[in-house]
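Researcher: Please translate sequence to structure tokens.
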Amino acid sequence: MRKYVLLAYGLLVFLGFLIVAQGSQMSRSITSNGTIDYSMHDIIIKRYTSPNYFNEIEAETIATLFDMCQASSWVAEKIRQVHGIRPDFKALLYRNLRAIYNYSGEWQMALDNNWILKDENGQLVYVTIYPTNYLVDIGNPQYQKWVANWIKENINQYGFDGVMTDFSLHAWASEHFWNASASPINPRTGKSWKDEEIRQALIEVHKEIKNAISSNLLVCNGIFQGQRFWRRYDEYMEILSNSPLDGLVSEGLWYQYKGTWMSEEEWLDSLNMLVWFQDNFLKEKPERIFVPGCKLESTVGDPYPLPPNCSKEQMATYAFASTLLGAKNNQNYLALIADVNFTISIVQPLYNVDVGAPLSDYYIIADTHVYARDFSNVKVLVNPTSDSYVIGLQGMFKTIDGELVSEIVMERHTGVILIRVH
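Model: Translation complete:
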């Protein structure tokens, strides 16, 4: 009898284990925000660039280092060569949507058609930090059709895969007219532009462009970082819900470009913005993309004002690890803008790490302000604060440099990718 009782007890324990295991597997699809699918494929962060040096390097190098770029027509021949090597490479034509340059071939036409905005005294309004850039009347239907046709013709002529329209996703007038020489007047009202007028004009010009370029990509540069997105959520949603956009570039996601670090709260707002775009804007839209940007230097190669005592390598790893904390699909194209030598030696090794599939949402390590996320092949850690923490890893890991570690000091404002030792 005792033997049968033990057998029954063993069977119950085994069944209980199966139920718990099954429940554990089921619970993996339910996370803090209810959206991560842990049966998904491996996460791959793709590579985006805004180059100033494409004519100086070989097409094979471009095809090896990047997956997508934005560029002007003067590098069109190099883009054709890259397409010949990698047909899946995507090149976006650059167009500044809010300004016309006074040295461009279209300048006189813009003047003749009264497309350049004026202030209350009738003076043309320009951008103070780019004095050759004059603000254009984006609400003018004639301009909207002209710029849409210009984009279409250039895409067709030079073989681009779409367009990246700069300054084209603004929720309110002061944002759109940032650094203007004066407050411009809306020609249709005779008064200063209202926020809703800016949003409606952007929606209309987006529609004109998409109608002209059809299946080619329409990617907009706008929402600078997460705090701005959440503060003006309803206004941004008005544009996102009514514009036929295929993608978004957000170039201030991981640090303030005035040379200061974000606070932990600001950084977390950006991280949650990244998650939101995947759960909403990208969801069930495989043709769409999101581009979190981080400038390590300007697009013309000048040094960028990084935070004090921050190296380009620290910022690159910080931005890459922060992006991995929120990455949930393979439609993210991280733009770590730097020269080609730095890209080869420092940036590309980050992309070379096979992180595998996500095993968790991001979480905070107990008694710290260090954020972590587990993948099948790596653990990602980010410290977005000005304090340092010693983190026990509950196992052996290997750094990208090959060092074996069981604990790690997370210095202030750093990110790290640790490879699991199986």
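Researcher: Any highlights?
Model: The chain has two domains: 35-101+137-352, 357-422.
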